[in-house]
Design brief:
Elements lengths: L1 H52 L2 H6 L37 E6 L4 E6 L12 H11 L5 E3 L21 E3 H9 L4 H12 L2 H15 L21 H11 L3 H7 L3 E8 L2 E8 L16 E10 L3 E9 L5 E9 L2 H13 L4
Antiparallel strand pairs: 1-2, 1-9, 3-4, 5-6, 7-8, 8-9
Helix pairs in contact: 3-4, 3-5, 3-7, 4-5, 5-6
Length: 345
């Protein structure tokens, strides 16, 4: 009995010690779990902060006066939208002869599609590709000498007013290209980047293939009418997505006007340029809670009235909307407003 009693007395401290160890282990597990949870929440919070901090407006308005960067940013879309056929949308009624599309960039989805894979003349929307190659292959402070080939291209052609031999930076040419749609700027850029217009056009077609714009073929850098110069709504969506990865494209494309300067001998010459986009010049008002961030217009008798836009809804979510071959500018902006009205629904 004595032996048994002593054994019982020994068991008590052992049980107490075991219990204390279990309690300590439980506390450590609890603290470890809380720490892991806090770390996960912190990482998610950081990711959300980074997402919300990437604002198109900051990219466009926040770098005024800063050094120009041609570094590529991430694309707005996590994936490219895909649509094989037409898709209707309540409140959108567009002429059957017009091609149009509305693309949700955050979700990589097509909201509206009408003939988006049918070939169409793009007119000056072509200049999106011209700009892409300039950003990709040039330096913004390059000095470009205006060649004779850039002048007097055809009757009625939109030109800034350069003279042969004028010297201008590539950055200024891009402003003239995207804001005013100057065809002389397009040719000057093409010769500077490609060495010749023909070589530059080859670069345009190669870039289109690399972007997946397989229903596109370019014949010139400006968009002047040519039967062998065509694209589709969907391919323009791909090209505009690529252009948007260059922050300076957005900085230029949102401007309502610009004073472009060049050197003509010893003299500095200034051209005042107004945007061709009537949303930017406030000739047309976008629907409520829609912010138009810029894009590219295009107009010829064969192409009709065309417009490709980047916009944001009330929540800052980005969308691309494209209308090709509208009968006139009134119809163009009517159709575009129908598309823009849908991004807040």
């Amino acid at each position: 009995m004595k032996c048994i009693k002593n054994r019982k007395r020994l068991l008590k401290p052992i049980k107490k010690k075991y219990r204390d160890t279990l309690i300590l282990t439980g506390i450590l597990i609890l603290f470890f779990g809380v720490g892991i949870t806090a770390l996960v929440l912190l990482r998610r919070s950081s990711q959300l902060d980074m997402t919300s901090a990437y604002s198109v407006k900051e990219e466009m308005y926040g770098t005024h006066g800063a050094e120009i960067s041609t570094q590529k940013a991430d694309s707005f879309a996590s994936s490219y939208a895909v649509s094989s056929g037409n898709m209707s949308l309540e409140g959108v009624a567009i002429s059957d002869t017009t091609k149009a599309g509305l693309f949700d960039l955050d979700h990589g989805s097509v909201m509206f599609a009408q003939n988006i894979h049918e070939k169409s003349y793009p007119a000056s929307i072509t200049k999106i590709m011209t700009a892409i190659l300039a950003f990709k292959n040039g330096n913004m402070d390059d000095i470009v000498t205006i060649p004779a080939e850039a002048l007097n291209q055809e009757s009625g052609s939109t030109e800034i007013g350069f003279q042969e031999g004028d010297q201008v930076t590539l950055d200024e040419l891009l402003h003239g290209l995207l804001i005013y749609s100057g065809n002389d700027a397009a040719v000057a850029i093409a010769q500077h980047i490609g060495g010749s217009v023909d070589q530059f056009v080859e670069m345009m077609n190669q870039e289109a293939l690399e972007l997946g714009a397989t229903n596109t073929h370019f014949a010139n850098p400006s968009g002047l009418q040519d039967e062998n110069h065509y694209t589709t709504v969907y391919d323009i969506y791909l090209m505009l997505q690529e252009a948007m990865t260059y922050p300076h494209f957005l900085e230029i494309a949102q401007l309502s006007s610009y004073n472009l300067t060049c050197n003509r001998g010893e003299q500095e010459v200034t051209f005042h340029l107004d945007a061709t986009d009537q949303y930017l010049t406030r000739q047309v008002t976008a629907p409520k809670n829609v912010t138009v961030l810029g894009g590219k217009t295009g107009t010829t008798s064969d192409a009709g009235s065309c417009l490709a836009l980047l916009s944001q809804n009330a929540y800052g979510e980005p969308y691309i909307s494209i209308v090709l071959h509208a009968a006139n500018k009134t119809n163009l902006y009517t159709y575009m407003n129908q598309l823009l009205s849908a991004i807040n629904q």
